[in-house]
Amino acid sequence: NRPRQFNALSEAMLTSLQEKLERITENNAVRLVILQGAGKVFCAGHDLKEMIATRKETYYKTLFKQCSRMMMTLNQMPQPVIARVHGIATAAGCQLVAACDLAVAAEDTRFATSGINVGLFCSTPAVPVSRNIPRKKAMELLLTGDFIDANTALSWGLLNRVAPLEKLDEEVKQLADSILAKSSVAVSTGKKMFYKQLESKMEDAYAFASEIMACNMMADDVTEGVDSFINKRQAVWKGR
Questions:
Q1: What is the pLDDT of residue 212?
Q2: pTM score, two decimals?
Q3: Residue 197 and residue 134 share a domain
Q4: DSSP secondary structure code for residue 134 in this structure
Q5: Which entry of 6, 38, 56, 162 is 20 to 30 Å from 197 by CA?
Q6: Is residue 240 part of a domain?
Q7: Hey, how many other C-beta atoms are within 10 angstroms of the C-beta on 190?
């Protein structure tokens, strides 16, 4: 919420985001998170003016670790996180889009990992970006610093959906409602399983997935879900 600074990720903003995400993680009443930027753009990345004012490597290491921790929290929290993107998403802003579980953008949004244009390779943004889009597309984005449009980002896999700006909220709500209609147990369990298996070898991934699925099968919501399917009625989820 720094519209005049294009929602640049200052040290203070990173701290605030981390604190809010941690509170949400512990709040079972929150089923889903929508992340959006105030003003004309989603996020223009790190606050370069703040960064260049402190020329100390120890400061930069702390800053990037702080940012990385916040990005990882997006994946680690049980609630799905949808990025609602408009305007531009550059450098760490593009990283933020890639780090969210899902992303919906206005069709006139532009994306770039533009650090290379000021002599700084977007090393931390490369982590989630390279896990969202094909390797050669990621390298093109990282090495050129060029902008891509929303439809290109969609075709590369950075986005789930694209909509006209005036229908962006409607598109985000449609996606959110589809998820919220499902069992919260299945959603949170599935999110945990998904990211864990991505880090594992296939054999280990199958072993972990089998354990998680067996545990999930014991949930009351599975009994309810199967019964509602067999009897052709709407499921009433209990969240357990």
A1: 94
A2: 0.94
A3: no
A4: -
A5: 162
A6: no
A7: 17
Does residue 21 belong to any structural domain of this protein? yes
Nearest to 17 by CA among 60, 61, 68: 68
What's the chain's average pLDDT? Answer: 96
Report the half-sphere exposure of 182 (CA within 13 A, side-chain side).
Answer: 14
User: 158, 180, 202 — which closes off a domain?
Assistant: 180
Token representation of residue 147: 């902008």
List the structure tokens of 190.
């599935």
Q: How far apart are CA 204 and CA 199, in angstroms?
A: 9
Whether 216 maps to a domain, the answer reads: yes
> In this predicted model, what pLDDT tens digit does every residue of 88-105 receive, in sequence order?
999 999 999 999 999 999
Residue 47 and residue 137 share a domain: yes
131-155 tens-digit pLDDT: 999 999 999 999 999 999 999 999 9
Q: Are residues 166 and 133 in the same domain?
A: yes
The token pair at 80 is 């799905």
Q: Which domain holds residue 225?
A: 184-230
**Residues 59, 86 within the same domain:** yes
Q: Are residues 190 and 133 in the same domain?
A: no
Surface-to-core class of residue 83, CB atoms within 10 Å of its CB (0-12 exposed, 13-18 middle, 19+ buried)? buried
Structure tokens at 228: 């509602």
Task: Please give the Cα distance from 10 to 137 (Å, whole number).
Answer: 28
Question: How many independent structural domains does the chain possess?
Answer: 2
